[in-house]
Amino acid sequence: MKRARSEFVSVRALQKRARKLNCDNNYRHEEDISQMDTSWRTVESFNSDQISTNSETPYYADDIMLDEAEQSVEECFGAIVTKHRLTRSAIKDLANLLVSLGHNIHIDARTICKTPRVKLDTDSFKHFGLIKGLVLKLKSGLIADSGNEFKLQFSIDGSSIFKSGTTVFWPILCRVSNAIDSRPFPVFVFFGADGEKPLDLNLNLKPFLMELKPLEQNGIDVDGQLLIVKSIAFICDAPARSFVKQIVGHCSKHACERCTVVGETISNRTAFKSMNARLRTNESFRARRDRLHHNNELTPLLRLRIDIVKCFPIDYMHLICLGTFKRYLRIILHGNVAEEDRIHKLSPDMIERFDDLIELLGEYLSSEFNRKGKSTKKLCRWKATEFRTFFLYTGLIILKEVLSEDEYKNFLYFFVAMRLLLSPSLTKR
What we know:
The chain has about 425 residues and is of the alpha+beta class. It has four domains: about 1-110, no CATH class; about 120-235, no CATH class; about 235-315, no CATH class; about 315-425, no CATH class. It is built from 15 helices and nine strands. The strands form two sheets. Strands 1, 2, 3, 4, 5, 6 and 7 form a seven-stranded mixed β-sheet that branches. A hairpin with a 2-residue loop joins strand 6 and strand 7. Helix 13 packs antiparallel against helix 14. The longest helix has 19 residues, at about 385-400. The chain is globular and about 80 Å long.
């Protein structure tokens, strides 16, 4: 043991020796380290290509086993990495620094953090686990007045990995909306090579539903306390909802998800004009009473006890911000939506005034508005938050300057309706 300590001189011991001899500490480090075993690797001599890629073997700086002292150093280093959430490049640089100072530890971030490597059963999707993530979130506690009930929200949508590529991810993200730690976590991810969706929805959602179904019925035990699922919601845009629910697309005449109204084609658009159609219910959906509303396949979500109609909220981000209001601005700014809409197009002078007011008002918006607004030439690149800022705040001033009295009054009807619907104190009544 004494011989091992003399061979593996710690940094702290070197500092004590340097202070006693009253010499330069840096020079002393270099002198002592140069006399040690030459098997230590420095930052310059390390080659990342030499890392083993075999899933059954760990990532070693050298193909030698660590002694107990160095294992404790690596464990402490791993704890610091986890606590401060260091990046992989920072972990690698720090590990190489420790190696150059004489510590025989691993230098790959995956080995230091003990990242598990599990071979997937399939190349197309991976189920990370719902219960595992829920336990971590629920241990943070629930917000006041929640009791022992928690609310689950699942987001399902496709996302391109690269701007110019066709590969996509279809993740399922879970969020406990009334938990103190309400950040979403991944439950499942599907990989599509050519922009494809999951071909077999039953196969891909099977592990997810196997965890969700008993959770819905029995709840979950967290630190000896039984917590019950109060509500389940699936947050999706229109294409994702039609895919998950196995119903017709949102442009179909039988696409309305809330009632059985039949759409009409008006100017190459589908319009739902009836206000007295029969509402869709959980029972009517499961019985498939409206055959033209459903696809041939059944959605696997029918295995759950949820209300299949109400658990899919229709979000105003896609309906209003990126839907109705975006179309409205295209009509008055570009006039290229339909032939009869061109009479509402603003003149070039009014469009220039429109842009000037957006730029001017953007200087007075507070930091709570993360997007101040872009030019109308970039309307196709506007984000949902920019449309929201416009029709709830700046649009009142800008449109009053460029629209006629009747057209401005029409916008005010829309403005008042959205202010009422977006006010939590009013919608709860």
